[in-house]
Known about the structure:
Blueprint: E1 9-14, H1 21-33, E2 36-41, H2 53-64, E3 70-74, H3 79-86, E4 90-95, H4 98-115, E5 118-123, H5 133-141, H6 152-163
Parallel strand pairs: 1-2, 1-4, 2-3, 4-5
The chain binds 4'-phosphopantetheine.
Amino acid sequence: MTREVGVHRAVCPGTFDPPTNGHLDVIGRAAAMFDELIVATGVNQSKKRLFDDDERVAMLREVVAGFGNVTVGTFDGLLVDYCRAEGIKVIVKGVRTAGDYDYELQMALMNRRLTGVETVFVPAAPELAHLSSSLVKEVARFGGDVSGFLPADVHRRLMAKLSA
Ligand code: PNS
């Protein structure tokens, strides 16, 4: 099988506010599929962020430190423009539920229509499918224990942020 030039690189984009164990699972599985994976934090206009860009990049760097082929990037415009600038032809997104799929499919089709970039969906591990950054923040804000849902450094940062 021949591969198109550039397909060995992929981007795993998200808000990552903060990165959860669910994100980490998808990142690890995507890293095993591509030679090079860029985990990139972008802006979802409909989400209010708790952590600033530098904090989210710092958390992601800690989280991906164990993977030899994963780097961290950031973008503040269209994902397709970032892909074009970085020579990336594949986007990887984790999907937990049918609701996720509906939303992700529409974005995937739009991104493909805009520049031809393809999206690969990775189904979330069932034991992690309850995780979302938004829910983890909400549970933590009301004093629930979220230590099992986040990488240890991320949990520490979240606790510090909420108690500041
Ligand atoms: O973690 P999220 O919130 O699902 O990440 C969504 C994100 C940031 C990847 C998405 O909103 C995005 O690509 N934003 C950049 C702006 C853009 O390209 N919008 C058009 C999408 S079709």
